[in-house]
């Protein structure tokens, strides 16, 4: 129970913890953040890792000089693009099992089905749109690999989406993260980011449910 509380505390107070880690680990903080974002986007078994909130917090501590904003932008963009690319390749390798709807250890088939609904509605643009929706973000490149989206098409949408995602949250954190109102209520801001990120997925889910019933 204590470890869970510690994880919740770290998640809700990312700005304070990141600042502490940045001072403690120096340049290695870039590696740590790179690995978290890479795994959140690149491994279908880790959709629970912080994405939007971590990037926002990184922008906030960059504003006080603990890390370099431009170095962080390049590192996060690389992590986002390489993560999706890795996920695409994993989907391609597991294509036959997924198409046969076989159970795959640690991968929830219902998440794949929900992501497929996004592809049915938005097509290739899903790779960009999904960047801003937790869980769907992790499974979109995987489903693209399963569906054999041409790699040239995938990589172009991947790069555009990755840069847009990082730019939005990193520079939002940089310019707004240290405003007194935001800084004093950072936990609520993080929860707000998470809540808003989930809205498109929830709306689409219930909309599809309603249409199916009709």
Q: How many strands?
A: 0
Number of separate domains: 1
Provide the helix percentage. Answer: over 70%
N- to C-terminal distance = 44 Å
Q: Which stretches of 5+ consecutive residues score pLDDT under 50?
A: none
Structural class: mainly alpha
| Mean of pLDDT | 82
What fraction of residues sit in β-strands?
Answer: under 5%
**In this structure, how is the largest beta sheet organized?**
none
The number of distinct helices, counting runs of at least 4 residues, comes to 12
Radius of gyration: 18 Å
**Overall 3D shape:** elongated
Helix and strand string, N-terminal first? Answer: HHHHHHHHHHHH
Plain-language structure description:
With 214 residues, the protein is an all-alpha fold. It is 79% helix and 0% strand. The protein has twelve helices and no strands. Helix 1 (2-12) crosses helix 2 and helix 5 packs antiparallel against helix 10 (151-176). The protein is elongated. The N and C termini lie far apart (44 Å). The mean pLDDT is 82.
Brief overview, please?
The chain has 214 residues and is an all-alpha fold. The protein has 12 helices and no strands.
Map the helices and strands.
Blueprint: H1 2-12, H2 14-25, H3 28-42, H4 52-63, H5 69-93, H6 95-99, H7 109-122, H8 126-129, H9 136-146, H10 151-176, H11 180-184, H12 186-213
Helix pairs in contact: 1-2, 2-4, 3-5, 4-10, 5-9, 5-10, 7-9
């Amino acid at each position: 129970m204590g470890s869970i509380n510690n994880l919740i505390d770290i998640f809700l107070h990312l700005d304070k913890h990141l600042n502490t880690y940045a001072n403690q680990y120096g340049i290695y903080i870039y590696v740590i953040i790179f690995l978290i974002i890479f795994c959140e986007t690149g491994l279908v078994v880790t959709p629970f890792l912080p994405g939007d909130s971590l990037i926002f917090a990184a922008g906030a501590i960059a504003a006080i000089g603990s890390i370099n904003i431009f170095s962080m932008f390049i590192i996060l963009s690389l992590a986002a693009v390489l993560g999706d690319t890795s996920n695409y390749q994993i989907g391609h390798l597991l294509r036959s099992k997924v198409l046969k709807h076989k159970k795959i250890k640690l991968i929830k088939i219902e998440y794949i089905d929900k992501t497929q609904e996004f592809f049915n509605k938005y097509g290739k643009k899903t790779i960009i749109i999904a960047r801003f929706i937790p869980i769907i973000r992790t499974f979109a490149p995987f489903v693209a690999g399963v569906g054999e989206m041409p790699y040239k098409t995938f990589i172009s949408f991947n790069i555009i989406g990755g840069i847009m995602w990082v730019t939005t949250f990193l520079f939002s954190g940089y310019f707004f993260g240290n405003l007194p109102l935001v800084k004093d209520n950072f936990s609520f801001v993080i929860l707000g980011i998470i809540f808003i990120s989930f809205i498109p997925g929830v709306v689409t889910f219930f909309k599809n449910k309603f249409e199916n019933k009709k």
